[in-house]
Design a protein that fits this description.
Butyryl-CoA Dehydrogenase, subunit A, domain 3, about 350 residues, globular, single chain, 9 strands, seven-stranded mixed sheet, two-stranded antiparallel ribbon
Length: about 350
């Protein structure tokens, strides 16, 4: 058996990027964490047989790829509501009950690999986990998904990918071509939206937070683009267009100032906010993690993940106590969360 300390010292630097890779493959942080654990267990067991013919990083990716492909053999894709059907017509009508669907999950930016700190690398890392891309990747068969990520996201050589998958280099190129074509059909048009400045992102996020906390529907409507989309897993009901989205929030959410409190965070390389709703006890309780997509024109998509378990994943409290002088006595320590950083 390998020396535990030596094995950990050599392999632990790759854990964050392997977690991001498994998330891209599975669409779930919780599943990704389990598969990274399985990857390291297999690597530890077979480390003495590792002969260094490939780099340690490539070897770990080979194990992780096999673990992911095995896991995906009996799992369905993780969609967002817009991937299951058309938008609803009546924002004031009843919502469909939660569907028996395993939904796509958001990925906290705090878990992204730190990398070298190079601005271009940071931007690329954020773009590679964008929510629209994650939803589109779910449409690819597992092997196509793996080849596309290994080649186009991680920039591994075709020969390395071929060895990982036990296929020829021409086969890798063929699979990659098919994956790119299918991804182009599945990817929504907004994923091609040009990158906007960090200052503009921060402005949109701040105004979004203020609109919710002040129950200011007019301010929110000013932020939404004409074709804005609202999705709210686990309900399959979703809305498209500024007017339907605005009507939904006006009648169901933004009714009383102070009913909502918001904590900025970051997910999938995008601005995000944790939303808390005031209960009968006067305490604000967890409601949703909202991931925002934006363009220079405004907010183009809101995906409100209404899963209380996500708050622990984002290192956020489950309740916020009564506000005192504009702050909560139980508000999260700024150092414990990951506010959206519009830089580099």
């Amino acid at each position: 058996m390998p020396d535990n300390d030596l094995f950990a010292r050599l392999t632990s630097p790759y854990r964050p990027e392997l977690l991001a890779y498994c998330y891209r493959m599975l669409g779930s942080v919780h599943d990704a964490e389990d598969l990274v654990q399985e990857t390291y267990l297999r690597a530890w067991r077979s480390y003495e047989a590792f002969e260094g013919r490939a780099s340690l990083r490539t070897w770990l990716y080979r194990i992780a790829t096999n673990v992911c492909l095995t896991a995906l053999e009996h799992r369905k894709r993780r969609p967002l509501p817009s991937g299951l059907g058309g938008p609803a017509d009546d924002p004031e009508g009843p919502l469909a009950p939660p569907a028996e669907v395993t939904w796509l999950q958001p990925f906290p930016d705090r878990l992204l690999p730190a990398g070298s700190g190079d601005p271009a690398t940071i931007v690329a890392a954020r773009a590679s986990v964008r929510l629209a891309l994650m939803a589109a990747l779910q449409h690819l068969p597992p092997r196509q998904r793996a080849v596309l990520i290994l080649r186009d996201v991680l920039a591994l050589r075709a020969a390395e990918v071929a060895e990982m998958l036990g296929i020829s280099v021409p086969a890798v190129k063929s699979v990659l071509q098919r994956a790119r074509a299918q991804l182009g059909q599945a990817a929504p048009a907004e994923d091609d939206t040009p990158e906007i400045s960090g200052t503009r992102r921060r402005e949109l996020l701040d105004r979004y937070v203020a609109a919710f906390e002040n129950a200011d529907i007019a301010a929110l409507m000013e932020l939404l683009t004409e074709d804005a989309v609202l999705e709210m897993p686990p309900t399959p009901t979703w809305f498209a267009g500024r007017e339907p989205v605005g009507r939904f929030f006006r009648t169901r959410v933004l009714t009383v100032p102070g009913a909502c409190r918001m904590v900025p965070t970051a997910a999938n390389g995008q601005p995000a906010v944790a939303m808390y709703q005031r209960g009968p006890d006067g305490v604000h309780h967890v409601h949703a993690v909202m991931v925002l997509s934006a363009s220079d024109a405004g907010i183009t998509q809101i995906v409100a993940f209404r899963d209380p378990d996500l708050f622990e994943l984002f290192e956020l409290p489950r309740t916020l106590g009564p506000a005192q002088s504009g702050e909560s006595a139980d508000a999260p320590d700024p150092g414990s969360t990951t506010p959206y950083d519009p830089t580099p």
